[in-house]
Amino acid sequence: MKLPDSQQQQRIENIIHSRFFDRTNIYNVYKWLENFSDEEMNDAIDVMEHIMYFRESDLINMLEKVFKSLFGGIDIDKSLIYIMPLGEPGKSGDAMMYCAHKVLHNKILKAKDSFRFINYAEEVDIQLCENKDNAYVVLLDDIIGSGGSFSDYIKNNTGKPKTDLLPIINNGHIGMKLIAPVILESGKNRIAKEYPSIEILCEETYNKAFEKGKSVFGWYKPLLRLRQFCYKYGKLLEPKNPLGWNNSQALVVFDHATPNNTLPIVWSNKYVKSMKRNWFPLFPRSYNVVGSRAYSDRTENNRWVSMLIGALFKDKLSTMNFEERHQILKKYFTKDNYNIVLLLRMMMSKEPNFRIANALAITSDDLDALYEAGVGFYWDENHRIKDDVRTAYEEVKKQISLERTRASWKHPKYSDDRHYMYTPETFRGLT
Question: Which CATH number is 56-206's, of 3.40.50.2020, 3.30.70.100, 3.40.190.10, 1.20.1250.20?
Answer without folding.
Answer: 3.40.50.2020
